Amino acid sequence: MMRHKSMLILLLLLSFTLGYGVLATTARQNAHHGLIVSPPLEKAQKIYGSSGDRTDREKPVLLRHYSEGAPAPVHPILRWTRVDGAVMYDVQVLRQMEPDEKTGDIAYEPVMPEQRAYTNGIELALPDDFQDDCFYYRVYGLDMEGRRVSDYSSIEKVPLDRMAPFVEKPELLSAYNTGKGSVLLYPVYDWFPVPGASQYEVEVLDSAPENPGGIEPSQHRIDVYRTDSAQKYDPRPRYGNHPFYWRVRALDEQGGPIGVWSDAQPFLTDPDTPYTVAVLGDSISHGGGSVSYSPADWDFSYLSYLDFPAVNLAQSGDTSTMTKDRFDADVLPFRPKYLLILMGSNSLRNGLGADVVISDMEEVRKKSLEHGIRPVFLTVPPVNPDNIKRTFDDETAPDWQWQIGRVNRYIRSQVHIDITPGMYDSQGMLRTELAFDGLHLDPAGKKLMAQAINAAWPDIENLPDSAWDE
Description:
GO terms for molecular function: hydrolase activity. It is built from 8 helices and 20 strands.
């Protein structure tokens, strides 16, 4: 499936940036233009919404806390929980005003325009003229159109230590080998965007760097990538019986370093690990969704919800032919007993047709059996052309439903698991609440997939050898 590229983030930034205007957090209007007025903070849970807001919506929960004893640096990292349905977040950065003498209400005023984040966290750069020793902030989630889909988080105070030494060092988001679904053949590297960075340099290493906290390339470098966004899909498979490492540094407009390299993060995809199950396919299997969440966010990986471990051999962007052509190089080193196969979505929605996809599936099936691997096909989910067009400005083949239907009839003639129940809307398209971009299933959709697989898996394991006979 298509990757979440920096151009999309740029389009979102241009389309959905909001001014801060008048902010009110009580039902009554506030005479102070631009102020947020609230009752005392112990009543905060009841008041962080404009007049008429729903009160039953999920709200972000702030995760990173600073204190007087452990204050924030000049570029604090703010983190909060992900909200279902949010593809981006706005952060309100505030200054506390004096309490009202009569009511005791606490007022806040914006310090800067709302800051847009495309994941559930941000590295914040305060205005140069902000000299307070603390600030306050709160967060809320938005959908693709910039409409609020959550209540405000609580307001949090952030003490600052302006005198503490500060060196810019990117904070990483990817964390591999941390549980089910967290072993990828094609890793994705992502981190919080660095204020002022024009681009980034990602370094892949075959050993831990000899110069942590430095600015020079490591002598263990085996690959390097430049990217304009705070995310990089590795186009090369990374596997072996020793860990790889990756790290990133921010660069300015001239290509010079901003600060130092991030900490180096190890990851291991070892073909000698006795994986019973491997997964092959495109980005539905690789992971990611809600426009900007990558395959390294495990909420967006159906493998993380399975009852059994599996190694992820999928690659975003694959057509069915690309998946077929990768088989020998990417599947055979792992020697799985079962191979879960979901392929063809990109080919079908782009008009290549069912004949090509079925032919590619047949070759993958035969190759699997030749090497003692039991292929288990997953039915191809529907798509939502309207949402794909709205998100990616990409057209879908007009006969996609008929073509997917033909492929799924072939799949149902093989050993398979039907993952599509509950995915269709009344028009036979992918339900918006399962995939906001019309293509990449969000956590609710990934859970549906896993539930179907988990329910069918005992029967798959009990099938006789003859079930896979030619």
